[in-house]
Design goal:
Blueprint lengths: L2 H38 L2 H23 L3 H22 L2
């Protein structure tokens, strides 16, 4: 019977060590996650994601329009007019 309290103390000590190590590991893990998020969510990353999303939308729109000759012609004319306006602004 006298051995029981000694075993309990050893188990409690082990439990305390495990909890302490877990808390330290948890803090390191949390710190690493925060650093990664801060590093990833930079202005450059956001701009790159916006550019990628716009590009994906344009490609998808072109794919959907590719089956309609009238829409293709309309878009071509609009693009041509826009380029013409840009070029004419640059001329003195």
């Amino acid at each position: 019977m006298q051995n029981m309290p000694m075993i309990k103390i050893e188990i409690e000590g082990l439990k305390s060590n495990v909890i302490h190590l877990f808390n330290d590991t948890n803090k390191d893990f949390s710190d690493n996650i925060i650093k990664t998020i801060e590093r990833t969510l930079s202005a450059e990353w956001v701009q790159a994601e916006i550019n990628r999303a716009v590009e994906d939308c344009v490609i998808e729109a072109i794919r959907k329009v590719s089956n309609s000759y009238q829409l293709q012609q309309c878009i071509s004319e609009l693009i041509g007019e826009s380029i013409e306006k840009i070029v004419s602004k640059d001329k003195p």
